[in-house]
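Q: Could you fold this chain for me?
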Amino acid sequence: MEKIMIVCVVGIITYGVYRLFELYARRRERIAMIEKLSSGIDPEVLKVPLHTPKYKDISTGSWAIRIGLLLIGIGSGVVIATIMDLSLMNEYQNNNKFYYELRNVAEVLYPACAAVFGGIGLVIAYVIEQKNEKESRKNDK
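A: Sure. Below is the predicted structure, expressed as structure tokens.
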């Protein structure tokens, strides 16, 4: 526990020093910008709105599909791992040594299947998002 406290204290002190330097650096930057503005820029230039390209926020509507497909993937991974676990364990329950070794290997099966199928769910979400984006581009043109 003491080792964790040492790391936490060092991290907090480092973060505090960083934020202090950042505060002074931003202050100097703002003061320099104010001085530049007051020393010779035409105020009419600042009244004209900038014409920047408008980008569509892609990530706004896609979070629901991402999270949904991720949870579906994780759920199906756990179901498949459970089915594999139950089917393998029933065959080898009589052999104690092999059963315990297989049981240790099966513990890795649950997070591995959840991660693999969760990743597959995210890939499917990405493909769906790309398809929707292409369709919206065709409709915009």
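A (continued): Residues 63-140 form one domain.
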